[in-house]
Specification:
Layout (H helix, E strand, L loop, with lengths): L1 H6 L2 H30 L7 E7 L5 E15 H6 L11 E8 L10 E5 L3 E6 L3 E6 L5 E10 L2 E2 L7 H47 L4 H32 L2 E6 L5 E5 L3 E5 L6 H17 L2 E2 L4 E2 L2 H32 L4 H13 L4 H24 L14 H25 L3 H9 L4 H30 L4 H4 L26 H10 L4 H36 L6
Helix pairs in contact: 2-15, 4-5, 7-10, 7-12, 9-10, 10-12, 11-12, 12-15, 14-15
């Protein structure tokens, strides 16, 4: 009986199904673990006030969040130079406390042994300030100043008044940002274009006195407009700096903090569960919509999200037609000879080439040779400053298009080989040409396979980092590849990428402890972006499959 059961193949079906199930569970579990470790960072943690007495009997107060807890052997601490532990247990607890206030302390993350903590209590009325620089600040509200005048506000009303004044400061800061990225950015772009136009005429020997006077008049008009906008900009900055909040820190020091440096504040120990959920959602939204700060260890990742999606979509637009045309030629037109066989082997072997090799190729050929030639031919007036002769999003997309080209070719060929030859012969017999047969019968029926290749290409390209480090990705990009200045789409610009952001924050950050949760959060976001792109492509593929299913019968 058992022998028949094995011969029937049922055990192998169950084993295969079990292996697939375990793989799915592992992948989903890993995804949820990354999401938990990343998204829990935005939850408003409880802030404690610790009374500390170290081995020298020195007393101090620490205010902060318990970031991590670990057990450590007493002998390990003694070997590390810690004294006064003779009467302690063999294993001790120690806490990693995030205390913020970076400009007033040596380290904003400190390990504290449990044995040194004489008192620990929830710090009610504590306020956590999120700032534009130097990280978070923990302290107690004392007063609010307007200019040099301390406002006569009761302690119970300080929080409400601070909300109003912070909203006012944020409003002026938003106006400042809109002015810098809007009209002032436009003027700077127009001035640069005038300078390049004048230089071009000079190189062509067509620069006349009349043209010089025309350029000067245009530049003077723009500079006059710029001065007016500059005065408006300084006015916004002065208005944003008008109010100051006075905060008492953990040492009892009163610190003056201009509201122009404050992004948000909250009281985690006095928030209800619903308020914490709302705060968490707001922090997650800011993470995906704001620009990064503090060497990418704080703020958001919107430029990296935009750069990743934009580059992948540009790569897909480039690789799809080339991959499909190559596959159609190899399957429909090329002869069945040794040369075609060699080409197929070469295409398959390209999939095994390390990605960094593609990066070196892209840097040498696309950036230096092709980009440098474009600069010489079309942008000589900008030299020696390169336009396309430096790494940018276009060269990154082309490099990844070559990297993923074998995937699209192989997938498309597989789709073409599944189409019965009788359909081609029937179409030709009815009077259609070969090109009409390809366009109306073969390619539509192979479109699901083409989309499968594109899905695989997008999944690989979105996660690549090594080649992008050479051909376009940067730590901080001052502007996006798309803006309001002509020609609106700037393919020569460098860009940020989620994969490189993970590498930079995780391995190049000056503050490892602060960066660790952002590594998980950005990784979760990258996987989510890839899944989103793939789901969109899968939906299109399924729609095409249903649309052309009737052609198979």
């Amino acid at each position: 009986m058992m022998g028949k059961w094995f011969k029937s193949g049922t055990p192998w079906i169950w084993m295969t199904g079990g292996a697939v199930s375990l793989s799915l569970i592992a992948v989903i579990g890993l995804f949820l673990l990354i999401g938990w470790r990343g998204l829990s960072f935005f939850w408003p943690a409880t802030v404690y006030e610790f009374s500390i007495q170290n081995q020298q009997a020195e007393k101090s107060v620490l205010i902060g969040e318990i970031y991590d807890t670990e057990h450590v052997l007493k002998q390990q601490l003694i070997d590390g130079g810690v004294t006064g532990l003779e009467d302690e247990a063999d294993s001790l607890d120690r806490f990693l406390i995030k205390i913020g206030n970076r400009e007033y302390v040596d380290l904003d993350f400190q390990w504290i042994l449990d044995t040194y903590i004489t008192d620990k209590k929830v710090a009610h009325d504590i306020v956590v300030f999120e700032r534009t620089k130097n990280g978070n600040f923990y302290g107690y509200l004392e007063a609010i100043k307007e200019g040099e005048t301390t406002l006569p506000i009761e302690q119970a009303n300080l929080v409400d008044e601070l909300h109003k004044r912070l909203d006012r400061a944020l409003e002026f800061r938003d106006k400042e940002h809109d002015l810098l990225t809007g009209d002032i950015g436009r003027i700077n772009n127009d001035l640069a274009n005038i300078r390049l136009a004048q230089r071009k005429l000079e190189l062509d020997g067509e620069l006349t006195e009349a043209k010089i006077a025309e350029f000067k008049a245009q530049s003077d008009a723009l500079r006059a407009e710029y001065l007016g906008l500059e005065n408006e900009l300084f006015g916004y900055r002065d208005q944003a700096k008008r109010d100051t909040v006075i905060v008492k820190d953990m040492t009892g020091r009163s610190v003056s903090m201009p509201l122009s440096y404050v992004l948000d504040f909250y009281q985690p120990n006095d928030m209800s569960f619903v308020e914490k959920v709302g705060h968490w959602l707001h922090q997650v939204y800011k993470f995906v919509s704001d620009d990064p700060r503090e060497a990418n260890t704080e703020g958001g990742v919107f430029p990296a999200i935009f750069g990743t999606v934009f580059m992948v979509m540009l790569m897909a637009v480039i690789v799809t037609p080339f991959g499909v045309v190559a596959a159609i030629y190899l399957h429909e037109y090329a002869g069945k000879n040794s040369i075609t066989k060699f080409i197929r082997i070469a295409v398959i072997n390209l999939s095994g080439v390390p990605s960094i090799v593609y990066g070196v190729f892209g840097l040498g050929f696309f950036v230096y040779i092709l980009g440098g030639s474009i600069d010489q031919l079309l942008y000589p007036e900008a030299l020696p400053s390169p336009t396309f002769g430096s790494p940018g999003v276009l060269w990154s997309a082309l490099t990844l298009a070559i990297l993923t080209l074998p995937v699209v070719i192989v997938s498309t060929e597989e789709g073409l080989s599944r189409i019965p030859s009788t359909l081609r012969e029937g179409s030709l017999a009815l009077g259609a040409t070969k090109s009409e047969t390809l366009w109306r019968i073969v390619i539509p029926m192979a479109s699901p396979a083409i989309m499968t290749g594109l899905i695989l290409a997008v999944a690989r390209a979105a996660g690549e980092v090594a080649p992008l480090m050479l051909v376009g990705v940067v730590k901080i990009a001052p502007t996006l590849p798309v803006d309001g200045n002509f020609p609106y789409l700037h393919l020569e610009r460098k860009f940020m990428h989620l994969g490189f952001h993970i590498y930079d924050v995780g391995f190049q950050s000056p503050n490892v402890e602060a960066a660790r949760p952002l590594v998980y959060a950005t990784s979760f976001l990258l996987v989510t972006v890839i899944i989103g792109l793939n789901l969109a492509a899968i939906a299109i593929r399924n729609n095409l499959r249903e649309k052309y299913r009737a052609l198979e019968h």
